[in-house]
Amino acid sequence: MSKSSAGCLAAASLLLCTAAAHALDRMPVLSLDTAQTMSRTCETLAKAKGWRMNIAVVDAGTNLIVFSRMDQAFLGSSDIAIRKAKFSGSFPFSTRYAGELTFGKDGKPGPVPGLADIPGVVTFAGGLPILVAGVQVGGIGVSGGSPDEDEQCAAAAIDAVKDALK
Asked: Is the pLDDT of residue 72 over 90?
């Protein structure tokens, strides 16, 4: 390969890498600080209500960012919270909605009854996607209370950081 060909190849590679890095700079990312604020918000609500929760927050790749297990929270709920977060970090809808797709709602059958048979799918409330301007940046999963309590805690956590997620 000639020096000029090698130079052109190096310049083209640099241009592609720069463009990719620039695209990543514009992609919203869920920060550790935001995830920690979400976890603390959920814990504060849970303490006020007398709930004992496990709280998991994952990024857009469903990698665990924050996990918190409150004192006396069920040990088995740790894994459930993480599964809820990972599911909701993978799909732009709640775990409650996955249950409705599978088992139906208001006496009507679910349109996707086999969904619950897919590994990783969670079909009860407590997992919510985290979105920034329509772009999914992660998910939160809460477990330890009733499904409605879990979802209420997750929703409060997202609401607490909505301005940081813009």
From this structure: yes
